[in-house]
């Protein structure tokens, strides 16, 4: 069974009907997909303070005492980790970006030259593929490209790739479409 | 002229954003009638305050370190607080300084595209984005360029486009440099800085630990 981690960065209840539709669709795929979903707005997770404990004091472990380890454990063993976020100020939500920052314990402080650029050295033997599901009822393609580019870069730095990136509106049909491409 | 300067580093006063801001202020201060106000965004209340103050500002510069290929989470939290002011900050000139541990300017280009969009979204005038790559050791030359950018900013309220490229160590590795850097990296010569701290912290032996592995 494929393990999927969903990082749900919807900041409030605006998209709750769509979130329910996603849950319903995921249920339909339960024989092939093992999905672990994290609703960030119900979790206690702080912003990265840039203390570098996870690199230099307790390698691989974040020093903040909050709910983030649940997500780190899930991401580390997943086949694919999906960022689900509505558009917020032409980007993903601060909730979503906060999690990107808090993923740095998964890589090493060391740098190396990879694909002609400096990148961090891997800490783990394998990393999940990344995915971006951007909820955007306006379907603004240019805006999507700017956000996707950031997540493509993030996937390189996390020793991974971004095989899935989709702009979706918040309808049931789109929920089914998104889940079938997980 | 009042300049609002935002320090977007989670490390606040103790990071490279502060060093960059100090150099920028030094340059700005050479012009007459310049007043500067620094707001450090690493406290939630400061992000509220910053959002309220930007409404009346003529020029604001946001400085932040590159965190996972974009702005730190606290900076995005601040940006979300600007939602009520979309398409309304017409008198604002908004500029950015992004610094990264990575030495290549290229690593910050993705977020630069976003910052252009953000400025448009707010209805503000774009003062440019300065990318100060290689801030692991911000060189005296880079600091000098930032002072010069500050010195020239009051003329047009836009960063001098001829100076901007000089704030980064380099844009990307040249074809000739890639094998040299690969060699240095294999020889372990790129990571002596990290090793020194790891050893000092008694964490060197555990440096490759995998606490969340299967």
Order of helices and strands of chain A: EHEHHEHEEEHEH
Strand content of chain A: 25-35%
Largest beta sheet: strand ordering of chain B: 2-1-3-4-5
Number of beta-strand segments of chain B? 5
| Residue share in helix of chain A | 25-40%
Elements of chain B, N to C (H/E) = EHEHEHEHEHHH
Question: Over the alpha carbons, how many angstroms does the gyration radius of chain A reach?
Answer: 16 Å
Strand and helix map with partners:
The complex is a heterodimer of chains A (182) and B (214).
Chain A: E1 2-8, H1 16-28, E2 33-39, H2 53-56, H3 68-77, E3 80-86, H4 94-101, E4 107-114, E5 117-122, E6 129-135, H5 141-157, E7 164-168, H6 172-180
Parallel strand pairs in A: 1-2, 1-3, 3-6, 6-7
Antiparallel strand pairs in A: 4-5
Chain B: E1 2-7, H1 16-28, E2 35-40, H2 44-54, E3 59-65, H3 73-80, E4 93-100, H4 109-122, E5 125-133, H5 140-156, H6 177-186, H7 192-200
Parallel strand pairs in B: 1-2, 1-3, 3-4, 4-5
Q: Any descriptors?
A:
heterodimer, A: 182 residues, alpha/beta, 5-stranded parallel β-sheet, two-stranded antiparallel ribbon, B: 214 residues, Rossmann fold, 2 domains, 17% strand, globular
Structure description:
Chain A is of the alpha/beta class. Chain A is 34% helix and 26% strand. The longest helix of chain A has 17 residues, at 141-157. Chain B has 214 residues and is α/β, with parallel strands linked by helices. Chain B has 2 domains: 2-167, Rossmann fold; 177-206, no CATH class. In chain B, 38% of the residues lie in helices and 17% in strands. Chain B has helices at 16-28, 44-54, 73-80, 109-122, 140-156, 177-186, 192-200; strands at residues 2-7, 35-40, 59-65, 93-100, 125-133. Chain B has a 5-stranded parallel β-sheet with strand order 2-1-3-4-5, sandwiched between helices. The N and C termini of chain B lie far apart (58 Å). The mean pLDDT of chain B is 95. The chains are: A alpha/beta (182), B alpha/beta (214).
